[in-house]
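Can't attach files on this board, so I'm pasting raw text. These are the components:
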Amino acid sequence: MMTSQELASYFRESLCIFDLKAASKREALAEMVDVVCSEHDIKDRGLILEMLLNRESLGSTAIGKGVAFPHGRTLAVRDLSIAFARSVRGVDFDSTDKKPTHAFFLIIAPPQDRDNVYLQVLGRVVDLIKDDASRDRVVGASGYAELKTIIEGQGL
Amino acid sequence: MIRDAEDAKTAAKMQEMGFPMDGIAEIKKARTELTEHIKPQLLNRYQRVSQNYERIVVPVVKDLCTGCFAKVATSFRYEKNSVVTCESCGRILYFT
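---
Top answer:
C-alpha cells for the assembled complex are below.
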C-alpha cells in the first residue's frame, strides 16, 4: 500500500495553486492544466483539457463537501502528475451535493500504468479527504508547506 | 477512459470512492464523433491492432516500443506529422 510519504512525493509546489481565479468548471480545469503543461513542458494543452471535460461528462468528479478530483489518462503525459488548487470563493463544479467546490486534486496519468498507481493515488487522496478534519485543513491550507504537512501526516 | 469505465474492477473501485460513472453513453458518443475526423486508413489500422492488443498506442522509451520491446529505428522520430507503427507488433507509436 502506498505510504503517506509516497503520496506526498507527487505534490510539487509548482503544481499547487492557492488562489484559483476560475469561476467555472472549464476555467478551473484550464487553470490547473496550464500549470501541469508548464511544469512538464507539454504542448497538447487542449488534449488534456478535452480529456478532463470528457471525464466530467462520465460523471462529476466533485463528490461533495467542497472537494473535486478531476482525473484521467492521457498520452500527453509521461508520468503521473497531481496538481492541487484551492478556490476561496468556490467554483460550481456540478458537485453531487450541489455546493461550491473549494479544493481540487487534478490527477492525470499515462495509459501505460502496469501497477495501476493512478488508482492507488486517487484512492489515497479520496481517503484523505473523507476524514473531516483532514479535509477542513486541506481546504484551509494557505501554502504548499502546510498542504504537504497535512498529506504526509495523514497516517493512513 | 472507456476501458476504465467498462472494466468491472476499475468501475467498482471508482464507485466505491464515490465517483458516479453513469455517463458512459456520452463518452462513447464523443468517441464516435471523433472517429469521423480520422482518416479511414488510420482508423482501420487502429481497429486491426486493437484485435490483438489491449493497448494500441504506446510510447517509445529508450528507442524501444513499450508494447513489444522491439527496437524502433531512431529515424522514425523525425517523420513529422506521420503516424509511426512498430515494425514488430504493429502498435501505433508516439515519442515522448
